[in-house]
Structures are given as structure tokens and as C-alpha cells.
Specification:
Shape: elongated
CATH topology of the largest domain: Transferase(Phosphotransferase), domain 1
CATH architecture of the largest domain: Orthogonal Bundle
Radius of gyration: 47 Å
CATH class of the largest domain: Mainly Alpha
Largest sheet: 8 strands, antiparallel
Distance between the termini: 121 Å
Number of strands: 24
Helix content: 25-40%
CATH superfamily of the largest domain: Transferase(Phosphotransferase) domain 1
Number of helices: 15
Length: 555
Amino acid sequence: MIETSNSQATSKVQLLDNSQNTTIIANRTVANYKLVELRGTGGMASIYKAIQLSLERPVALKIMHPHLHNNETFVARFEKEAKRAAMLHHENIVSIIDYGCDNGEYYIAMEYVDGTNLSEMLKKQRKMPLEVALHVCHQVAEGLKYAHGLNLIHRDIKPANIMLSYDGRVMLTDFGIAKATGDLTITSTGQVIGSPQYMSPEQAAGRETDHRSDIFSLGIILYEIIAGEKPFKGETYQSLVTSIISDYPASLREYRVDVIQEIDDLVQKSLVKVVDSRYQTAEEFSEALFAQFSKFKLQSPRKMMADYLKNPIRITEKLRADKISDHMESALYFLAVGEGKLAEAKKEFLDVLRFDRNNREAKKQLTKLESQLPSEKRPEKFWDLKLNLGISYALAVVAIIILSMVTFSMLPKEEGERSQLLPEVVPYGGKEQKPNLIIESSAGRADGRSSQVSRSSDIGAASNTRISGNKTAMAFNYPEQHLLRYSTVKVTTNVPARLTIDSKDYSWSNGPPIKILPGRHYIEVSANGFSTAGKRVFLRREKVDTLKFELKRRP
């Protein structure tokens, strides 16, 4: 059917109720089919129940309206529907049996579905149980997955085109305006195709559509049969199109307490305006629907559907009672297990209240559980995560500032803060030099703490002596070394001399202070033509030490 602002009256399908408004057709035959009764009519054709005379079986016969017989565009579309639908063989799609023209009447013979359609069902039951709603749309999505796999886009997904058989089957029909991917024939650019209330935004805007438009239309149906009303509304065609293009539907949880967040998210994703952000394939949508439907753990979905069509009110209440019973049974089981399962029991009691908010037993047990359960941390939501990240970031900044302050405090102090030195006691040149600087030794204290010695004569009593050739070396018991911070030493000589520390060349004397790890070191200076001089020192942390050497010219 073509849906435009000028043809709303002819676009609305008027399906007739089986029991009251069926029109009996007597003694009329079209080709090989004897008409029995009129079942419905639309803008392009009428639907009859007929008998195929050659096989004596019931069929649905779709006959084009007489005033369209001379319209080549409609005839071409009618023929195209038959040929494309004939390609489809799937349990969720009504099969095409025959197509032809008899005495100027164009017809399509289809599989007869003994049942009703979703549009008629919604007149009796505005809201459907979640199990029924998810099952119906899952079955339609399976049919769309098959059709899309053959590059066929339906473009007119609506309740009137979803058949519900009394044996529990769900079938998609009416591929009258279906389009093959990339097909630019028959319809012209900018022409609005489809039923306005179930159009996708791209359809309503007259833009090019693809298979994702069918997904949006099916999302509208799912929203409607759960909430009991359509997500997009408008008193006029233009206001309805504006709503589809710009409005965002309210959450399903505002309509029903039994709708969980996962189901609401599923429906909202199917109704995203941006094509690339909604479900990208019917298969993806079908899997999401089945994942939620399987949580109800029904033994026979088809039997549930058949029973629901026979008595929707009774089955709706039965499904609700079954869910309450299942959740209550699970809750009492977890409660009997005791510690370790109380949280699960609480969750099940809350589920009971979702379906029966006045259940006294669930309320009573929840009150008891509140006193038994420890205070539980609620699940972190996205904004909680952002808050925690903010706190972590602030703590990291504080840690960096503190570390910077500690590092700054470790930098060398002014040169005036001299550390105590251990003078070299190995004289070079054969004479023993008496040190005139204060040194430390720990050998004279029983507690291991250092004592000060002012002269080298005292050093001998506080330390051991070893003889190596003609040099006398004093082996001091130095304090424990800490290598976590640097020391600084400045070496001056009476003549420029090469400076080595622990037998490694460092630089020249009379230069800038040298940064070195604290502890014991042997510092030596040498110059051509002069005697080599050296000192064994103990450098302390955060101190600037100055060593002065007087080099003597060699004879």
C-alpha cells in the first residue's frame, strides 16, 4: 500500500472480524478458486477465504480492486508482490500458492491461516503479557531475518500484517510494497511508502530505506503491545511524522512494573533514530528478544500462544500467577538454605512484588531479611564510577605533590653545611700526615654508636692497623651506609689536577661540586710533575663537603 498525506483514507486496512462482520459470497468463482467469504479489505485489494477446487483445500485469495485494473503501476506492484513472496519459504512467512489474471481480475492465492491478526487481537487486549509480546516479535524477527537474507525488505511491518494462527503460529504476510535491495523501480524518490504509524524516521522523511527500517517498525509494535499505546502520536499525518522523526518514547517502566531494565533497553535500542545505532540486523534483534523470552522458562511457547488466543484474559492471569509462584518458591528455598543465599532470597521476594505489589508474605519476609542481611553496597552505576575515578585522580595528584616535596628536600644544601670527613691516613711520600679534621669511629662505643676523635693519635686506639709495604693504613669501622640520597663534594687543589673517585675518573679539581652517593669513598687527585694525593672519606646525605689538597712538586 502507498501511504501519503493525501491517501490516508484508502490506506487504512479494514480487517473484518471472523464471527460478526464476515460477508458470505455465494456461487462466485475466480479461476480455480471458489470464493467462500470476505475476510478483509484494504486500499489495493480484498482478502477472501476460498476453496482451491483442484485440491479441495482452503486458501486465502487476494483480489485486486476493479478500479485499479487499468493502473499499470498497481498491477506491476501486485505482480511483484506475488513473485517475491513466492521466493519465501519459512515457517514465519505466509506462503504464496498461485498468481494469475482471470477475466481481468488479478489475484494471489496464499496459504490460509486459521486465526486472526495482531491488529484484531489488540482491540481485545491492549496490553499483552511480556512472554506473549516477546514471543510474537521474536517470531516476526525470525521471518524478517530470512527475508532480509534474500535481500527483500518488507517496508510495511504493522499489526495487521502479522497473522496469529489458532494453533500458536506467528506469521508475517503482505509483501505488497516489499522492495529488493538496490531496486529503484516502481517507486520514485521521495515517495512515502508504508503505514504512517509504523514508519521508521527514514521512511517518514522520504529517504532511502534498508532492512533496518523493518527493525524500527517491529520495535514500534513491541512497544505498543507492552505499553498498551504507540510510542509516537499525532492527530494529523504531519504531526505524526514529526513525532516519529523528533520525539523519543517514554520508558516502558512508566507503564508497567513488571518490565525489567533489560527489556526496556532492548525496545529503546530498536527505536533509535540514528540508523547505525539501532539493531543492525534482524538476526541481532531476534537474538536479543529470545534472550529475554528464555528467562521465563516456558515449556511450550506455541501452546502458550494458542491458549492465549483462545482466552487472553485467563492466560494473562495464569502467566502472572505462575511467575509469582515461581519467584515465591525460589525465595523460600534460598531462605531455607540460610546464610550465603539471603541476598538471592531478597531478590526473589522483590520479584514477587513486581507482579503482586500487595503480596503480604513477600513483604513480611523482606522485613525480616532487612535485619538479617548486612549492609550491602549497591551496584556501582556509571556516575558512581566517575566519582570514584575523580577521587582516585585527586589522590594521585596529592601523592605527586608530596613526592615532589620529598624530592626537593633531598637536593644538596648550601656549601656552608659541611659534613664531617675521614681524612686519608695513608701518607703519600713516606711521611705520616696527622689529620686535623674531626672523624668518627664506632669502635670505641659498646653500643655501636660513633664517637668523635680529634687527632690521629687517638685514631690508633679506636681502630685496627694494617701494614702494606712502607704505607700505614687505618681500617676504620665506618657507620652504616644509606644510599637512598645523594651527597655533594667539592675538591680544590693548588694546581689543576685530575680527579678520581674509587679509581674511576670523574673530572678535574677546582670545578663545580660533584653529586655522589653517600658512604665510603676514596678520592684521589693527580697532576703531571706533582705527587699524587688521596683521602678516604665518609660522605653523609644532604651535605656539601669540601676537600682541599696541596700537591707537592716531584724532585
